[in-house]
Specification:
Blueprint lengths: L2 H21 L36 H22 L7 H11 L1 H9 L7 H27 L5 H39 L1
Helix pairs in contact: 1-2, 1-6, 2-4, 2-6, 3-5, 4-5, 5-6
């Protein structure tokens, strides 16, 4: 087996393990079936609305948004779990596209209420790590066939980045879920 193939397999195994470990720490139900909807903005001049309220029970919209973060985490972690073990230039492109889906989905969910901003910031940072991984996969895919030491070094650096960033992203999304659970518990 060429060195780059065994390195790919080892990196994929580590990434899958990290994704599985991190996705089990979010505190969310594994049987979630809620459908998320984008947030609406607060009308100009409104001073006391559900969108700006920092205390009291969570609104239905807030609960749906939090549940969508847990669902997003599980779905984005599945990208590497479902990835082929023999990575090729052709297979890394679609992986990169799927990893970019984290930021797209978070944007689709919309900006949450003020009290859920800490969750949003963590989730946004997590998705940024998946975007970084996507760029690294795209870089490795562009290198393609390795013909020299310089290309091999660049390829290995890209793969290292491609598999390290999702672990950080998954950890940040797990932290976002944990923060959401904490906020929900405080709200009663």
């Amino acid at each position: 087996m060429p060195p780059s193939t065994s390195r790919r397999t080892a990196c994929l195994a580590v990434a899958v393990l990290c994704a599985l470990l991190a996705s089990g720490c979010g505190g969310q139900s594994a049987t979630s079936t809620a459908v998320s909807t984008p947030n609406t903005t607060t009308p100009a001049g409104a001073t006391t609305t559900a969108a700006t309220r920092m205390s009291g029970p969570m609104t239905g919209e807030e609960l749906v948004w939090l549940e969508a973060i847990g669902k997003l985490h599980k779905e984005i972690d599945r990208v590497l779990v479902d990835a082929p073990t023999n990575l090729t230039s052709a297979s890394m492109g679609p992986i990169a596209t799927k990893l970019r889906g984290c930021s797209r989905e978070l944007a689709r969910l919309g900006t949450p209420t003020e009290r859920l901003q800490p969750v949003y910031k963590l989730a946004k940072s997590g998705c940024a790590q998946y975007d970084k991984a996507a760029e690294c996969f795209a870089t490795a895919a562009r290198i393609g066939v390795i013909t020299g030491a310089t290309e091999e070094r660049r390829f290995n650096q890209a793969l290292d980045c491609a598999f390290a960033a999702p672990s950080k992203g998954s950890e940040l999304l797990a932290n976002a879920e944990g923060k959401g659970f904490e906020i929900k518990e405080k709200a009663g």
